[in-house]
TrEMBL record:
GO terms for biological process: DNA replication; double-strand break repair via homologous recombination; nucleotide-excision repair. Residues 165-196 are annotated as: Disordered. It holds the Pfam family RPA_C. Belongs to the replication factor A protein 2 family. It comes from Linnemannia schmuckeri. GO terms for cellular component: chromosome, telomeric region; DNA replication factor A complex; site of double-strand break. CDD domains: RPA2_DBD_D. It is found in: Nucleus. Residues 172-193 have a biased composition (Polar residues). This is Replication factor A protein 2. Residues 158-262 form the Replication protein A C-terminal domain. GO terms for molecular function: single-stranded DNA binding. The gene is RFA2. It comes from the Eukaryota. The keyword Cell membrane does not apply.
Length: 268
């Protein structure tokens, strides 16, 4: 679905470390960089923490390297040294700063206009106590299904990274490797957590967690039925089973419908 190799950028699956030395001086300072690619929202970026001023950023308690997100362009400030895009994804607003490169596709860059949705790959930086994205690659979204896929990937990685904190089961998994598995199998979206097992209460709790971490939660819209089905159909045994579970949770007072019969929010 997504091609991250544009502009000379190549994503790394899994987690690796490389030393970046400055010059040929053996005594020169070196820093270790984390080579991961994690799908995120702007809210997660703005809430990313550092243990020290020049340390790595953390999301869900895990160090992050490179991030990818899908957002709408709300403002563009072009200059000779850099392009600054103000982007918004429904969870927040931040700046994405792109320095010109010989590898840039000029036609692609010129097609990024106000209101366009874009896929960005970059790293999280901080200036004046505010996070922003230093862009490695940016391209317009052609198929809006990519937005839905991205949001599901964000939720999948978040649930995987925080599973133990939420009292779930199964061994913890790397957020970057989880994303890699789902990115490589994007013929469709698989279960949010195929390692989780249990009865109906466990499934209901997982669905509640899914909705609570959905980008639509804060706006009160909640999660769409199709997103919940995409995440849990494999685990429950089919679309009709997910619909039965949603009806049961609604009847029991755990969920309620919002703007229409296909949007669900939690009651807690």
């Amino acid at each position: 679905m997504s091609n991250y190799n544009k502009g000379g950028y190549s994503s790394s699956q899994g987690q690796g470390f490389v030393q970046d030395s400055f010059g040929n001086d053996a005594a020169a300072p070196k820093r270790t960089y984390i080579h991961t690619l994690r799908p995120v929202t702007i809210k997660q970026i703005m809430g990313a923490t550092q243990t020290q001023a020049d340390g790595d950023f953390k999301i869900d308690g895990q160090d992050i390297g490179q991030v990818t997100l899908v957002a709408a362009v709300r403002a563009i400030n072009q200059a000779s040294t850099q392009n600054i895009y103000m982007i918004e994804d429904g969870t927040g607003v931040t700046d994405a700063k792109k320095y010109p490169s010989d590898h840039d596709d000029t036609d692609e860059i010129s097609s990024i206009i106000l209101g366009a949705y874009v896929r960005i790959v970059g790293t999280v930086k901080n200036f004046n106590q505010k996070q922003y994205i230093q862009v490695h690659s940016i391209r317009p979204i052609i198929n809006m299904n990519e937005l839905t896929y991205h949001n599901l990937e964000v939720l999948t990685v978040h649930v995987s990274a925080t599973r133990n904190k939420m009292g779930g089961h199964g061994a913890p998994s790397s957020s970057s490797s989880t994303y890699g598995q789902h990115h490589n199998s994007m013929h469709g979206v698989t279960s949010t957590d195929t390692h989780m097992r249990g009865g109906n209460d466990d499934v209901a709790n997982s669905i509640s967690d899914f909705i609570d971490n959905h980008p639509g939660k804060e706006s009160g819209v909640g999660a769409h039925r199709r997103d919940i089905i995409a995440a849990f159909a494999q685990r429950l045994g089919g679309e009709h089973k997910v619909n039965e579970m949603l009806k049961a949770m609604e009847d029991d007072g755990h969920l309620y419908v919002t703007e229409d019969d296909d949007h669900f929010n939690t009651t807690h």
